[in-house]
Amino acid sequence: MSSARVPPVVVPASGNNIIVNPCQRGNPVLECIRNVGKEFGDIAADYQVGRTTGVLFLSLRYHRLHPEYIHSRVEKLGHSYDHRFLLILCDITEHRDPIRELTKSCLINNITIIVAFSNDEVGHYLSVYKQFESKPPDMIKERVDKDYHAILRGALTNIPKVNKTDVETLRSTFGSFANISRATPNQLRNLPGFGQVKVKNIENAFNKPFRNDTTTKLSQLTSTQTTQPQPQEPLRGTGNIAQQVLSPTSSDS
Q1: What DSSP letter does each residue of 167-211 carry, written as one string?
Q2: pLDDT 10s per residue in the chain (253 long)?
Q3: Where are the chain's structural domains?
Q4: For the structural domain made of 148-223+233-245, what CATH number should be given?
Q5: I need a labelling partner for 160 at 20 to 30 A (CA). Which of 114, 115, 119, 252 fits?
């Protein structure tokens, strides 16, 4: 179908309204859309939850009886909407294969697939999409702190039993991440609040290899084929703790 025949994006009478395709009349999902208005309109999607966002709805039970239906709907959707979703109601037990095939089709057609397990959940998705239509993405963006001390605190508190107070004790005592990683168990035990378990956890974080069984076996196989062991680096950390702190923006002071 040519893009000229695709219904234009409809502007709702109220900015808070979801536009519903008339083909959705009688769908129990409509009763589950709350906190936003609804109005019917000639749209390519089943639900228009934003001026650039269209949603197709599909019950897997219906899809099992009419597998060609959704493909014709995707074709009619054409290139309408910048953000396109297929909202699936998973209402059958044998759902893995049909969802897999639908996912492939959605990837080809630049459609995001979402699976819900009840009419209430479908209605909730539609309501939230409309409510967040004009919201900035700040609340779901990762908050990356560029401050060295904050990065140090975030890295070291990943060690079990180590809290923010302990990190400040380590920083004020040893000065830098590199010096903390070189601290001996005896030095750590002399610090206030550092018991045997906490010291052991810190020691393991910096010294225990960050490897799974496969890489360990491969390393053992390789070591048997070499005659000279490789010298160890001064910084003993081999896990993700060192990777978090020793970044290009981090300093050793």
Answers
A1: HHHHHHHH-SHHHHHH--HHHHHTSTT--HHHHHHHHHHHHS---
A2: 444 444 556 766 667 899 999 999 999 999 999 999 999 999 999 999 998 899 999 999 999 999 999 999 999 998 889 999 999 999 999 999 999 999 999 999 999 999 999 999 999 999 999 999 888 877 777 777 678 888 899 999 999 999 999 999 999 999 999 999 999 999 999 999 999 999 999 999 998 887 666 555 655 665 665 555 555 555 554 455 655 665 555 444 4
A3: 3-136, 148-223+233-245
A4: 1.10.150.20
A5: 252
